[in-house]
Amino acid sequence: MSIDPIRLERRAGQRFELHVPLAVHFEGRTAPGFTQDLSGRGIFFYTEAALADGTVVELTFTMPSEITLAESMRVRCRGRILRVSGCNAGAKNGIAVRLDSYQYLPPDDCESIVPLARTAAAGSSGERRTFPR
Q: Is residue 131 part of a domain?
């Protein structure tokens, strides 16, 4: 007979399972990836890029209407990597990021993300919001 340990959920905000492509901008480079889940304070995603704990990243993706409760919106988030799992050459790495800020991008922004293929340059200005700490 085995007993599963009881796990205490430490997350303060609601987490959404979200599988959409994203662009990961770091150290002057951009890599494609895709999200697994998202909350108001963090995001977990997969990418083939080799990233280290503590790296500052900027993530660009489209927030679907199911989460915005309006129309789908392009978002640019900035944060710091808390945890990396995987780290095998050529394999997808799981990345946990604590989000510090986000910015809604204008709808006429011509930036696009093609899943795991290529990404375009970062877009222009939009409204900036900062998450509570």
A: no
> What is residue 76's predicted lDDT score, i.e. its pLDDT?
95
Closest CA to 46 of 63, 29, 65, 61: 61
SS (H, E, C) 64-75: CHHHHCCCCEEE
pTM: 0.70
Q: What CATH number is attached to the domain comprising 26?
A: 2.40.10.220
- In one letter, which amino acid is 120? A
**What is the 3-state secondary structure of 74-118?**
EEEEEEEEEEEECCCCCCCEEEEEEEEEEEECCCCCCCCEECCCE
> Reduced to 3 states, what is the DSSP secondary structure of residue 28?
coil
pLDDT band at 123 (very low <50, low <70, confident <90, very high): very low
CB atoms near residue 40 (< 10 Å): 14
